[in-house]
Design goal:
5 strands, five-stranded mixed β-sheet, Nucleotidyltransferase, domain 5, magnesium, DNA repair, EC 3.1.21.10, endonuclease
Length: 182
C-alpha cells in the first residue's frame, strides 16, 4: 500500500509518501513541503496547492490519501486557510477515485507515539525511528506521521465498516419493517 499524507495549509502544505507491504519494513518514498506566497490572491494560492498535489499524485501514484482533520485553536482565519487547502487535497484525490481518510492530530500522535498528547519533537523522533531515516524531515511536518497512522489504522477501520454494513438490514427488509411499524 502506498499512502500520500497531506498536512494541509494555505501558507505551507506538507506531503509525505510511505510504502507498506506485509513482512517488509515501512519506507519513505518522498517527503516535502511546498509554500505559497503570502501576498498572492487566495485563488492563486489554492491553484498552486492543487498543482503541487496533482504533481505528487502523478509522480507517486498512491493508493490512498490521508488528510489531517481540520481544526484551529488559533482563529478563524488560520482555520479557513487550512480547510481550503484540505478541500483542494480531497478534490484532487476524488478526481482520481482515490479513497480519502481524515485523522485528527490526537489520533496521529496516539498511533505513532502511543500518546495523543505527544509533542512535535516526540512525533518527529518516532517517525524517524519507524521509517528508519537519519533525521526527521525538515521543516518538521506531520505528513509522514499521517501516512503511518493510516497504514496502521486502515485495516481496523475497514473491518469496522464491513461489520457496520453487514449489520444494516437489506433495503427490502427495512421497507417491510417500516410498513409494519405504521
Amino acid at each position: 500500500m502506498r499512502v500520500l499524507g497531506v498536512n494541509p495549509g494555505l501558507a505551507r502544505c506538507g506531503l509525505g509518501v510511505v510504502d507498506s507491504a506485509p513482512g517488509r519494513p515501512l519506507t519513505v518514498t518522498a517527503a516535502g513541503v511546498f509554500r505559497t506566497p503570502a501576498d498572492a490572491d487566495i485563488g492563486h494560492r489554492l491553484l498552486l496547492i492543487e498543482r503541487g498535489i496533482e504533481r505528487w499524485l502523478d509522480e507517486y501514484q498512491p493508493g490512498a490519501v490521508v488528510v489531517k482533520w481540520v481544526f484551529s485553536r488559533y482563529g478563524v482565519r488560520t482555520g479557513m486557510g487550512t480547510a481550503q487547502a484540505s478541500a483542494v487535497a480531497i478534490l484532487c484525490a476524488a478526481r482520481r477515485g482515490l479513497p480519502v481518510t481524515w485523522h485528527t492530530p490526537g489520533e496521529v500522535k496516539a498511533t505513532v507515539t502511543g500518546s495523543g498528547g505527544a509533542g512535535k519533537a516526540q512525533v518527529g523522533a518516532m517517525v524517524t525511528r519507524l521509517l528508519r531515516i537519519d533525521a526527521p524531515p525538515k521543516p518538521a511536518d506531520d505528513a509522514l506521521a499521517l501516512a503511518l497512522c493510516h497504514i496502521w489504522r486502515a485495516p481496523a477501520l475497514n473491518r469496522l465498516q464491513q461489520a457496520h454494513a453487514a449489520a444494516r438490514p437489506a433495503p427490502a427488509l427495512a421497507r417491510r419493517q417500516k410498513d409494519t411499524i405504521r
